[in-house]
Design a protein that fits this description.
Number of helices: 3
Number of strands: 20
Structural class: alpha/beta
Shape: globular
Oligomer: single chain
Order of helices and strands: HEEEEEEEEEEEEEEEEEEEEHH
Distance between the termini: 98 Å
């Protein structure tokens, strides 16, 4: 028993002192390293640093040798996408979230015409009907919101209702109206001065002379409305008026 007591008194303190000493040395080493380490540098953003936009959406997308062309007085909303062979002519307007893909063929938006919100305009390589595959929107044409146009031709002074679909080779002749939600099959021709509707689109009635006179007036009214939007994107817009009002409300000298 005496021998066992001597052995236990020698072994137990060594077993306990080893881990405790290691922990004490490691704590002291960590504390000394923190005290001796230099303070982390403070990184401040430069005042002239360029603010890049990484949302991934571009308004103008050149494809190969083709670059979208926008007339000086045409209004194209900031979140519109124009790609490839797209031409927006004088007085035309393309509204928010519309997409005009001229990656396969040419797309033209004529004088004082408008392509409204979330429309998709595309053009195929070729048309199965043998008609022109490019998408042409002539002057004084109104394209309603959420419409889909693909390789079709719309002659001057027409109205295309909202949520309409015009397929390859379709033709809408001048002074015609297509009701909302209509679907024009490939190669279908809508004669001049008529109202069509349905899926597929069918003849409803002939338009009166007064109704045909109202078609270009609608396009002109939308053109006038686009002027107020267009002015906000000029280098010197009316935004400074809002800044002056804010300064006045906060008591800052203008």
């Amino acid at each position: 028993m005496a021998l066992l007591a001597r052995v236990s008194r020698r072994i137990v303190p060594r077993a306990l002192s080893g881990p405790l000493l290691c922990r004490a040395f490691s704590a002291e080493a960590a504390q000394s390293s923190q005290e001796s380490a230099p303070p982390a540098p403070i990184i401040r953003e430069s005042a002239d640093r360029v603010k890049w936009d990484y949302r991934g959406q571009r308004k103008i997308i050149p494809l190969g040798q083709w670059t979208p062309k926008i007339a000086v007085d045409a209004y194209v909303a900031p979140n519109v996408v124009l790609a490839g062979q797209v031409a927006v002519q004088d007085g035309a307007s393309v509204w928010n979230s519309a997409v005009l893909r001229g990656d396969l063929n040419k797309i033209t938006v004529g004088f004082c015409s408008n392509v409204q919100e979330r429309c998709v305009v595309h053009a195929a390589w070729s048309s199965p009907t043998g008609l022109p595959a490019e998408t042409t929107i002539e002057r004084y044409v109104t394209i309603g919101a959420y419409s889909l146009l693909r390789s079709c031709t719309i002659e001057p002074e027409c109205i295309i209702g909202q949520h309409s679909i015009l397929m390859e080779g379709s033709l809408v002749e001048t002074h015609s109206i297509l009701e909302a939600g209509s679907v024009v099959p490939p190669g279908r021709r809508i004669p001049t001065g008529e109202l069509w509707a349905g899926n597929p689109a069918k003849f409803v009635r002939s338009l009166t002379h007064e109704e045909t006179l109202e078609i270009p007036k609608l396009a002109v009214a939308i053109h006038d409305l686009s002027r107020s939007y267009f002015s906000e994107f000029l280098p010197y817009s009316t935004a400074y008026l809002e800044v002056e009002k804010l300064k006045t409300s906060l008591g800052i000298s203008v």
